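To assess whether ligand presence alters the predicted conformation, the chain was also submitted together with fe (ii) ion. Input:
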Amino acid sequence: MSAMPQPTHAVGPYDLPPLRFGYGDLAPVIDEATLRHHHLVVHKAYVDAVNATLTRRPEFLGKTIETLLRGLKDLPDDIRADVREQGGGHADHQFFWKILSPPAERRPAGPLAAAIDATFGSFEAFKARFEAAALAHEGQGWAFLSILPKSGFTLKILTLPDNGSVLSQPEPSPGLIICDLWDHASAPFGGRAAWLRAYWSLVDWDYIGERFTGVHEGRSHL
Ligand SMILES: [Fe+2]
């Protein structure tokens, strides 16, 4: 297992961030060819597209994608929609890869587990609520467990359409977990319900516990 993923502070033009695991390491849940395509083709297309968008407004190339998404409403009209969609696709995938790791039986521990239990009743109840929200989401999008530092570190499940970002919400969230609800993610499983059941075995709760602690300590974990 490679090192803990670090916060990303790269400014544009953005690079496709490397994965912290090998392309075959998520098998048999996600096979190597599927992961290669998702990272090297789908994610890379968003990186290329947002970089192309920012060439129209090069003054924004010096910002991280997280900064642009946090300030989305203040961006010029001629790039806002493209940054939301293409930049959001880049940032959401970047976040998604960070929370995945080779298949294993894992569950939250420590303060994160306590917060999940306090908010949702139990880890099992949380997973059921998350899956229900993801299944109820219509169309392409992403599901999140977000954390709201300015609202008492409240945990909140939400889904966003297309390439929406938790960073662009009225109260931006660092996000704790994210799940890709696009058809390109669920199709290899035969549908979203089967993908969601398989997803849990890839979620790296050790890393998410670190994110949780980092948010509480005021460190950036974006
Ligand atoms: Fe995706």
